[in-house]
Amino acid sequence: MNKNWKQVSGNIKYGEKVPYTFGEKVTGIPFKIEVHIERKNLFNKNEKVLAATLIVTPRTKNESTIGRVILLNKEKANVNTAKFNESLTAEARTSNLVGKEIIFYLWEEGATEDKKYQKPKTAQVDKYGIARVKFTLSDYATPQTLMSFFTGDDNVTKKFFVTASYQLKEVTNKTPVTVTEQQQQQQQQQQQQQAETKKKQSGPIEKLTEIVLIGVVKTAELFGDKTKTPTSIGKAATETKEDGKCPRCEKVTLGELQKIFTGVKNSSDLEEIVTFFNKGAKYFGINTCLKKAHFFAQVLKETGNTLTIKSPESMNYSTDALKNGYWYSKGANWVKGDIRNKKGGYYANGSKKSSCNLSYFRSHPDIAEKYGRKDLNKYGDKGVQVAYEDMLANYAYSDKYGNGNVESGDGSKYRGKGLIQLTWKENYEKVNNEIKPFDPSVDIVSSPNKILTDKKYAVYSAMGFWKWKKISDVIKKDKSPDIVDKVTYLINKDDDTESKKKRKANFQDITSKVFRIDECEPSVTQPAKESSGKWHDPVDNPQRTKYNSAGNIKPVSGAYGDVRNGYTKYHSGLDLFALPFIKGESEGTPVYACLDGEVVESTPGNSAGQTIRIKIENVKDLLEQEKKINYQLEFTRGEEKGIDIKEDDNVYFIYMHLSKRVVNSGKITAGTLIGYSGVSGSIANDIPSPHLHLEIATVQNAYGTGKTKRTNPARFIKLNSYNTKDQDDAVNYKYDQNGTKTKWNPPKNDQRNL
After folding, report:
1. Nearest by Cα to 555 from 442, 437, 721, 370
2. Would you state the pLDDT for residue 211?
């Protein structure tokens, strides 16, 4: 200010408040505001006299925003309609993000949350604050939409949205692009475009600075910047919530984590966890209170309440623990170690037994003796020999799942690290692939030790693992503590009983209460079921198998009826495409109970492999489902309807070829995870068309009864299109029940008309 300004008190007179928004390009450039007073001069004429000047330098307060996102056609016009094979440009208008990367997602109306964030594209914000990417609509359509267009259905109309995202800031175009093969009239396009321009764009509400001066402000002399990316300062942002959306779902707070990790003394450590988790919550699919409760219950078990991540998985095992597979950490009558003969001490009468799952050393006791810990006067004192942890890891984790031999050092390099103890190089690579589209700067394969020192690496490695294993798909909306065991299986299938109990207790007693899951009802976490409330499909996204066991296109071969060997051989169930157990890649496709009932048999099986039989509790629920589906035979030859189920029948659902069974007996409810699909059994092993074989019968074991006791399961399941990339990719391998897949060249002959 110049010398004419002075501080005043008392009754201050205020003039007009004039808000002004500066463009981003003038950030940091000083502007002069002049205040003039109008008064009479000596000749009694009005004149304006300069009273004061004010220098204003626009600043941003470091707030970055995405103002809006639009779609443009090849003429760079804002569009609301497009043809199916057309390429569009997505354009995000931003503030304070020059040089930063924006992630774009194109998605079809009705897509579930996990489907919205597939095939992302990135673009750097240019000097004008704009980021652009190109999309081809056909690359982002669902299989059902693809089929509709390719089969020439001219009446098909689909709507697409684009979302632009930078960390937690996310904006979606409010008016969708309508995709159709029919020609839209120019007048309709113009009306839609006019409606779009009148709509108020959403996004972070930008802040304004109000400049208030006593006197008259010559606003006309403030020349505006016409940049498309305004930098706005000062006005408080308002938070808008989606209808029905829990306001706590998508973020964690410092206070919440302090209640979970009570042993953390430095709050800044937790603040970093909060920051990076919140940035990735939506992308990695851990964005509901329930999913957060499960995630942090597992993290609490892996790291303890001190959130210890600075050290890798402990290999501080005693020689006896390594050789025997267990050890006693408490007991009576301590037998002292022997330094001269290098013998470790131990409890003669143990009272607390713990397991060691490193089976390598049980068959290599000499390595255990050489590198294991040996205590002297008390448990854990290392008085005879310390554990050579790096060497133990190199031996335990060598020559499998992407790790090299002992000399490579991969065992130690890729042993358990982070919030969820990630192990094996192959797993590091798969998790890294999940992280890269979100944050290309993170590389846990080339820099695995950063997981121990960099909170971003620690958080994203755990969240990437969660996304890779599709753990949120298992949780869905089920608040039952029993889901913890299913989550634990995906994280550590070899977990011991005590550890499983601890994880469940973490969820029940701590994280479920901290995140208040009973008060939360997310808007949409799963697609609406295509059935009554009591029905659950046997697998997610059920689709019949497209290929037969010879690698040819013949979906009828997986249907019910005389569909094989030239329509002379009976197939007693329905084959639903399901990727099997693959070592280091997949546990198999989750398989669910379709209705409430009782597990009457769970067996390793023989020719049909691992099998579960469930007796349905209320047959009326099954008949209601049949009415809802109203299935018409899909194939004119071979496929049959099967027997009609009556309400007084005993009905059994029979699931075959499983890779793992997680239920053995007892009552069960619809939607309960009962196992994972596989290719077990002699009739399913070593095939390119992995599937769940499902039968529905009126007797527990229908073997030998032919068609007299069975019905067509397709009568009760809403089947999706089998023309999917997943099936086209899967047929390029043969799968065996040991978890090995072998590349081959399938013929892929189209035999649908044979």
Report:
1. 721
2. 28
Structure tokens at 332: 């009576």
Side chain identity, residue 743: K
* Residue burial 258-271, b: 16+ Cβ < 10 Å; e: rest: eebbeebeeeeebe
- Report pTM: 0.43
Pairwise CA distance, residues 505 & 297, whole Å:
8
Question: Is it the case that residue 8 has pLDDT exceeding 90?
Answer: no
If residue 149 lies in a helix (H) or strand (E), which one and from where to where? helix 143-150
C-alpha span between 400 and 270 (Å, rounded): 35
Q: What is the pLDDT of residues 554-598, one digit of tens each?
A: 999 999 999 999 999 999 999 999 999 888 777 889 899 999 999
What per-residue string of b and e applies to 478-487 under the rule 16 or more CB within 10 Å gives b? beeeebbebb
Contact 712, 640 (CB under 8 A): yes
Q: Can you state the angle between helices 289-303 and 483-491, rounded to 10 degrees? A: 50
The helix/strand count (H/E) of the chain reads as 19, 33
Torsion, Cα 275 461 410 367, to 10 degrees, reads: 90
Closest CA to 569 of 552, 546, 548: 548
With residue 582 as reference, give the H or E element that holds it.
strand 581-582
How far is residue 601 from each of residues 91, 102, 482, measured CA to CA in Å?
A: 57, 53, 21
Rounded Cα gap, residues 570 and 566, in angstroms: 11
Give the Å distances, CA to CA, from 189 to 90, 194, 380.
18, 9, 76
Q: Which positions ≥6 away from 580 have C-beta within 8 Å?
A: 586, 588, 589, 659, 677, 678, 679, 690, 735, 737, 739
Which candidate, 439, 371, 431, places its Cα nearest to that of 402?
431
CA distance 316 to 388: 8
Strand partners, 156: none
Amino acid letter, 96? N
